[in-house]
Specification:
By secondary structure, this protein is an alpha/beta fold. Helix content is 50%, strand content 13%. It is built from 12 helices and 9 strands. α8 packs across α10, α9 runs antiparallel to α10 and α11 packs antiparallel against α12. The N and C termini lie far apart (54 Å).
């Protein structure tokens, strides 16, 4: 870890399913953290481990040299940037690790840079467990100087990080990744359902898949709970559907036909209609129930 990181004051905005373990990992690595969340009580687990609670997003920025932001969607990310802006100034860095579209990220970048601060988008690949384990993957783009400055922090929270170029590149890469993931999960849900209807054992299906070329950690992790009809949220279904929608919008903008992602998105929307918004995205399997 670079010695210069030791004196960098860290701010964190967002204390949700991802933000809390990410902030905790920064604390465990010896970084002082000032945290803010719209609902202050959500910060309690981080404050209990030594973080300082800020009264506002702007105060979190005022008391920090670099600020990480992890919130749920583009609207929340933009609102946070607007609230944080009064606390930003030259020499500070604003790192948004939320999953948003490139247009929103570009708007946030302009707002942040307008204060004199540097901006980096760095959406993460990974959900609750990788966040807890410090095993996220950061897809960064924006100000290279800021990327180099926060690399030690990214290494605390993740197992890999990539610099992809100008603002928007990280956002687009994340949407591609989550589109593939969402389509894979929808297909897996179909396979489990078809297996059951064919009178076959679904646990045997998991074993067969685990031994072949289509094996993936996601199937091994989610499959047993899907068989039980249990969907403890690691990555909420509403966020997966949001990412499918954003990926499809990107495809339309770039004139890329995406029939598989489009079909999967419709499955997530059906599951939402069945009250599965806040369950894990593996709850997409309920879309196939009759």
């Amino acid at each position: 870890m670079a010695s210069s990181s030791e004196t960098i004051r860290v701010g964190f905005i967002g204390a949700g399913i991802m933000g809390v373990p990410m902030a905790k990992n920064l604390l465990k690595a010896g970084h002082g953290v000032t945290i803010w969340n719209r609902t202050a009580s959500a910060c309690d687990p981080v404050v209990a481990e030594g973080a300082t609670l800020a009264a506002s997003a702007a105060e979190a920025c005022e008391k920090s040299d670099v600020i990480f932001v992890m919130v749920s969607d583009p609207a929340a990310a933009l609102a946070c940037a607007e609230a944080a802006a009064p606390g930003l100034s030259a020499g500070k860095g604003y790192v948004d690790v939320s999953t948003v579209d490139a247009a929103t990220s570009t708007e946030i970048a302009a707002l942040v840079r307008g204060t004199g601060a540097m901006f980096l988008e760095a959406p993460v690949s990974g959900s609750k467990a990788p966040a807890e384990q410090g095993a996220l993957i950061f897809l960064a783009a924006g100000d290279r100087q800021l990327y180099d400055r926060v690399a030690p922090h990214l290494e605390v929270m993740g197992k890999a990080h990539f610099f992809l170029g100008d603002v928007g590149a990280g956002a687009n890469m994340k949407l591609v990744v989550n589109s593939v993931m969402g389509s894979m999960m929808a297909s897996f849900a179909e396979g489990l359902t078809l297996t059951e209807k064919a009178g076959l054992d679904r646990e045997t299906l998991l074993e067969v898949i685990s031994l072949g070329a289509i094996n993936t950690p996601m199937y091994a992790l989610k499959g047993p709970n899907m068989i039980k009809g249990a969907f403890p949220p690691a990555f909420p279904l509403k966020h997966q559907q949001k990412d499918m929608r954003l990926a499809l919008e990107l495809g339309e903008k770039l004139d890329v036909t995406m029939p598989v992602a489009n079909a999967a998105n419709e499955m997530y929307k059906v599951a939402q209609g069945k009250g599965k918004d806040d369950d894990d995205f593996s709850a997409v399997i309920v879309a196939l129930e009759k």
